[in-house]
Amino acid sequence: MPRTTTVECPGCPPFRALTFDALGLIKVIEARGKGGGVPQVVDRWGDPDASKCVLAACIDDRKTDPLLAVARKSGVIEVLNPLNGELSVTVSNVSNVGVRPEDDAIVGLHLFRRRRMELTSRLCTLLTCTTKGNASIKTVDMTDSPAYSGSPNTWNVCASGNIQCSQVNGSENYALFGGKGVEVNMWDLDKCAKIWTAKPPPANSLGIFTPTWFTSATFLSKDDHRKVVAGTNSHQVRLYDVSAQRRPVISFDFRETPIKAVTEDLDGHTIYIGNGSGDLASVDIRTGKLVGCFLGKCSGSIRSIARHSELPVIASCGLDSYLRIWDIGTRQLLSSVFLKQHLTKVVFDTNFTDEVKHDATDSAAHEAQSMGEVQTADETEKLPNKRKKSSKENKGSKNKASKEKEGSKKLKSKKRSKSLEHDVADDA
């Protein structure tokens, strides 16, 4: 018998997450309750179709008029309402005539928040980047179907190779791009100009040079665009300082499979990395030392990691079709949900906490009411055991006693008559 381990899941704090899979489905997962809720799928948007596989997604979870942008394999970008899944506008990203969307798929997508505040609420600005390096910033009018407000800014971020990762910093002024045969490079989005390009590390002592292949990248801090963390296909994690040098400041290996997902923590020096064999760990990037691995190994490649902006939890998903919620302090698995399809992306809806507080009071009152109902029901069920016998039962018992008395009287009269007959016979 193989040895197995069981991990007890204590439950999750209240959260709401959106997952995206290879069949184009968007699933809403919610956990309610302060004492450790169990996440459940509460809604599902779309129909299963492999051509609508979600390749990238970004959420603008402001309290008023939130938006969700989704890039699909068919080259279509959909802007949805993240609260109910209603489609606001659909935009086609296919620019070159005769090129199939699968050959130049969207790998990077960002929904601008700052530019949307400067514009009216009916306009949204999107940044897209394809595999061939075709980047574009376009403003979409969501009232008309579909229309661009002004000419989009388009440029190419690589001369050769394939882009596989893209990320925008917190101020939304700079963007990262990298991929297979493409060194990590940074662009100024206001000027659409390249401001920095990484330089590959030198060959090792044996003279072996590792070819460039970046699979994921992120900014170390939302407020500082100068420090960049990138993961490679050769299971390396590299820290770049744009203001210092072009080569990595710190570089270390993690396990033996490609790094597939990297995300930063709110403290500005911790990162979370996931690889192709399902290993998930946190690293202090200041020293490059491993803080620890998360308990409960995933059985498939991790493709996305999301850090909640308020709760001390992260979410991970990948090819094993599980959404997992982890505690960042204890690195323990809080809960997991099986979602049937290969998952490509997960995002948190941070506005859900306010809704949960209101719902929690209602649910507590409802639970108290239901408990009162259950208690009264139990009391009513116990009452028949304490009450006296009914009138029917008393009548039955009285009738039975009277019948027994009558029978005994008849026996006594028969005995008396027999004894009298015997005495008369003796006298005769």
Written account of the structure:
This protein is of the alpha+beta class and 428 residues long. The protein is 18% helix and 40% strand. It contains three helices and 29 strands. The chain has helices spanning 114-118, 352-386, 391-427; strands at 15-21, 26-31, 40-45, 54-60, 67-72, 76-80, 87-92, 106-111, 123-130, 134-141, 147-148, 153-156, 162-168, 174-180, 182-188, 193-197, 214-219, 227-232, 236-241, 250-253, 259-264, 270-275, 280-284, 289-293, 302-307, 313-318, 322-327, 333-338, 343-348. The strands form seven sheets. Strands 8, 9, 10, 11 and 12 form a five-stranded antiparallel β-sheet that branches. Strands 3-2-1-29 form a four-stranded antiparallel β-sheet. It is globular. The termini are far apart.
Brief synopsis:
18% of the residues lie in helices and 40% in strands. The chain has 428 residues and is α+β, with helices and mostly antiparallel strands.
Keywords:
WD repeat; WD repeat-containing protein 74-like; 29 strands; disordered C terminus; WD40_repeat_dom_sf; alpha+beta; WDR74/Nsa1; 428 residues; WD40_repeat_CS
User: Low-confidence runs (pLDDT<50, min 5 residues)?
Assistant: 1-6, 354-392, 422-428
How would you describe the oligomerization state of the chains in this entry?
Answer: single chain
Based on CA atoms alone, the radius of gyration comes out at 36 Å
* Mean pLDDT, all residues: 82
The count of DSSP E runs of length 2 or more, i.e. the number of strands, is: 29
Task: Characterize the largest beta sheet: strand count, sense, and whether it forms a barrel.
Answer: 5 strands, antiparallel
